[in-house]
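phosphoglycerate dehydrogenase, Tuber borchii. Tokens?
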Amino acid sequence: MTIPRDIVPGSNTVVPSTPSPTAFFNAGTSPSYEANYFPAVPKKQLKPFNTGDIKILLLEDVNCTARELLQKEGYQVEFHTTSFRDIELIEKIRDVHVIGIRSKTRLTASVLDHAKNLLAIGCFCIGTNQVDLGYAAKRGITVFNSPFSNSRSVAELVIAEVIMLARRIGDKSMEMHFGTWQKASTRCCEIRGKVLGIVGYGHIGSQLSVLAESMGMSVLFYDIIPLMAIGKARQVKNLSELLVLSDFVTLHVPETQETRDLIGYAELKAMKQGSCLINASRGCSVDLQALCEAMRSGHLAGAALDVFPREPSADGPYFNEDLGRWVREIRDLPNIILTPHIGGSTKEAQEAIGTEVGGALVRYINFGCTIGAVNMPEVTLRNLAAPDESHLRVIFIHRNRPGVLRQVNDILGDHNVDMQMSDSRGDIAYMMADISKVDLAEVHALYNKLEILSCKIPNFLMSFGISLGLSH
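Tokens:
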């Protein structure tokens, strides 16, 4: 074990190691406390659980900003540039407290079943469809992502693709690479004065709207809820209206049952003759067989795809028929831009994502804060910095059923509760409490009672505590 790290500056007094985080975090266990765990230390010093015992696994070349942030906290960080297949992943995930992934790694229920100590998952990307969010919540595993940090990068890629499709740059470049000089301007046009139809007017769609208007385009957008338009953009009543009026249609929607095959045969037929389709959101949103037919018939003039229904799990010559028969057909089509899911793959976006998700993980590990979680209620209490008295933070994750919180509060009522907060999201409830003036006997008794409670309540999920500032 390593020496615990100060969360806030304190004296230079060295404090021996505290119990392993497993003792605090694992469900159904009561940590054993002995006097030598908590020797006398000066006040105004915050000593949490042993940060050096927190194990973090980062996959898929997560940006160095996240690695540096997590290592600075004193955690053990294991880093890999690739994703793992299930067998390797199950072995690696068995003992870690946090795993960080991007879009390739699949954290299914069968994989998560082997993660005995897992507290949190960091998705260093926008989407979380690669994680079984419901099952993670049932296991008390909190999931964080970065829904906004790469919005600008995706918007810029789409604008670039609009211009490239209008000028047929992809085909022209390929001809030149093969030695053909073809200077004709046939079927090439400016984007000024054209109509851009945006499906999904969120952070990416609204930024794209600003960029498109600045280049002289008219902007229409469709969203399932009424939204305030930026600039001169106009919201239309339904998807059909947008498809009929737009010269370029771009998708920016989440992956849901409603967005699966959002653009199929009927929708492509409804689009303007000679229009273009761009998809940089989710691969399942476009029926690719229908798109191939629309392109071959000449009804669509072009398309750009950054996402696909199935994508290779590693870099290399894997974009082939093993993914689906549509691969060969799409690769042979003219004026179609294919990119390997790089919408958010810019230096700026990855640094921002690393900072955002890494910071969320640190706040969760150190203080139990769930702000930004996608599968848990958002609950936070102020950070305990330089407390005057010994403190203990207790977090209890449980099913949202009558009577559970009352039984928890019956236990907490024997202690000096400074602050408490609870919230629920669907079937999951999350309770956080700060207890002050805690001595060793009280800590031991509190955890014993919570252990007994967890056995008696069938809808109990997980309880864990964060020991803060114990100065005995």
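The chain has two domains: 21-148+349-468, 151-338.
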